[in-house]
Amino acid sequence: MTEKLEIKAVDRVEILTLQDNTIDLVQQDNNAVVQRAMPLVGLEVKNSILAEHGFSSLITVTDDDRSRCMLFDFGFSEQGAAQNADALGADLTAVEATALSHGHLDHVGGIGPLIEKTGKRDIPLVVHPAAFRNPRFMKISDDFKVFFPAFTRDKAAAAGAAVVDVDRPYPMLDHTAAFLGQIPRTTGFEKGAPNLFCEIDGLERQDPFDDDSAMVFNVRGKGLVVVSGCAHSGIVNTVAYARQATGVDPVMAVMGGFHLAGQDPDRVVAPTIDALKAIAPTYIIPTHCTGRLAIQRIEKEMPDQFILNMSGTHLTFSA
Fold it and tell me: MF terms per GO, please (predicted)?
């Protein structure tokens, strides 16, 4: 049984997406929750926002007029998320801590330039120790394997991060945020990625993604905001564990990569959406590796809750 995690209810959670897979600078759907990136510098249309196959976010938590900031994931390329931070005018010097959803390149590639923009050294990097597991690869066949670049403790240190190894729910930002640690697998339909492998004790096996984790916040009177990176543990498992760990049942927002791209539409995608509908979040925001077809299906089946995310999108969840 998980020991209950103390997480403070806050007035506001803001999530600025520094990197996602898509961008549309003429979306024109701004409202109280959603603000899109503007292509303007002064009155000229020349501000470019980059989309890459990756995820990175700047998260600000505000309570009683005090704001705390963190980075969750760092995007794919070395400069992509950092360039977007500049284009978006994001001030990273307020960042107090960072966290990593898992050790794949599309979430850790830009760690160096982003931490450099904080102006800090030895900034905490909260991460499950299995994020440093190597080698990790996509197995096409026994003779054809595509490897992920290794993420190591030395690379984290060189980027300016001080690693905090966490395998269970861990409070951050003075208990206004929490890293979930290792997420239990309880659903029958969320089985991970069958083509992603690693070596453990010299033996090749399907990657168990022990390191896959998420961030959770609690908006006063509205419920949890759960943010995943890829949800290799399963997004339904992730939300269930967030509820269990915090003791908070209502869910305001479920956001992140749901890793439904290429998954069986009937055996995986459909039951995932059914379970998300049963959770009944106020907002559902699929990103990154959720995949075009699954995102379209989520939008169709949860139209009033659905928000289209993209690079540069600023979301505000308020009490």
Answer: hydrolase activity; transferase activity
